[in-house]
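Incident review: delayed structure delivery

Summary: a single-chain prediction request sat in the queue longer than the usual turnaround. Root cause was a stuck worker, restarted by the on-call engineer. No data loss occurred. The affected request and its eventual output are reproduced below so the record is complete for anyone auditing the incident later.

Affected input:
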Amino acid sequence: MAFFTKYARPIIAALLSAALLAGCASLGGFDAARKYDKKYGLHVEHSKVNTFCLLPKLRYVLWKAEMRFGRPVVVTSGFRNPVHNYMVGGAWGSYHQKCMAADVFIPGVSKSNLIAFMRSQSQVGGLGCYPGRKFIHVDIRSRPSGYKRPVQFKGC
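Output delivered after worker restart:
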């Protein structure tokens, strides 16, 4: 028993944590996700979406949304280099350039339900809602002192 406590438990905990934080624990097998590719553990809307460097904290928030709704999160925009960010009209200093933001939707889940869920997540620091678009922006910036909800912009 001493061997298990001293060696096996920490190794198992580390392996499980690494799998979760790497995005490997993302749900699969959803009918709605069949038309979307999966890159680096996340479903993407098209092949040009870059999810490689998205930080574990952001991946964890997206995974929690998958668990809550029982469907995959689809990323429409992940990491953006400065040129791409400029070309799509992204904000200067965008959290997309820091691997701390993603634009996402969940097939079959209303945008209002996804927004409500993300508002309730303590890890979410910024939330953009973009009326007329199917996706929302989620980022993991630090919330300003005294904020109990994410910083909200663009129609939230």
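Verification: The two ends are 53 Å apart (CA to CA).
Action items: add queue-age alerting; document worker restart procedure.
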